[in-house]
Write a structure and sequence with these properties.
The protein is an alpha/beta fold and 183 residues long. Helices cover 32% and strands 32% of the residues. It has a domain of 124 residues: Rossmann fold, CATH 3.40.50.
């Protein structure tokens, strides 16, 4: 017996909004209520997996930390590998990395270069796209390692922050399950 997936509107209703976090005026979109709902989590992964499959994904990349939740689940669903994009110093081998700008400072992402095949179609999966800095750095890092990165999938888009547009300007196709207007 098969069941219809929850619609994206039904999934959106499972995302909790926390006002004034982490500072006044911010409407924080909290996915813990979505991932804690067994059908919501499963159906979110199914929706993302369908999109990734249509993109021809050979591997899924997810950024630390919430990208690990959705990215690994999508990879398992598709029967393909998962590539963790880590914060610095987390991998026990020689890595390649990229530094990228934050609002106040610089951060770094690293990967195992041996985990990326030349020309391999890698799809980025994460929980949320806000300003796009981390996702853009991830795409640049994977491309520098020889991957073919053309697609990025997110559960949530905050379009007012411009991240999806920034990724599109960098040549990525961006797809999301839902969006929330405002910060």
């Amino acid at each position: 017996m098969t069941f219809a997936l929850l619609s994206t509107d039904e999934l959106k209703a499972l995302v909790r909004t926390v006002p004034d976090f982490p500072k006044p005026g911010i409407q924080f979109r909290d996915i813990t209520t979505l991932i804690g709902h067994p059908v919501g989590m499963a159906d979110s992964v199914q929706h993302l997996a369908q999109l990734a499959k249509a993109c021809g994904a050979q591997k899924i990349a997810g950024m630390e930390a919430r990208g690990f939740i959705f990215g690994a689940a999508v990879a398992v669903e598709l029967g393909i590998g998962f590539l963790p994009v880590r914060k610095p110093g987390k991998l026990p081998i020689e890595t390649i990395g990229i530094d990228y700008a934050l609002e106040y400072g610089v951060d770094r992402l690293e990967v195992d270069p041996g985990a990326i095949g030349k020309g391999e179609a890698i799809v980025i999966v994460d929980d949320l796209i806000a300003t796009g800095g981390t996702a853009l750095a991830t795409a640049q890092l994977l491309r520098s390692a020889g991957a073919n990165v053309e697609n990025a999938l997110f559960v949530i888009d905050l379009p007012d922050l411009g991240g999806a547009a920034k990724l599109r300007d960098a040549g990525l196709t961006v797809q999301t399950l839902m969006e929330f207007e405002g910060d």
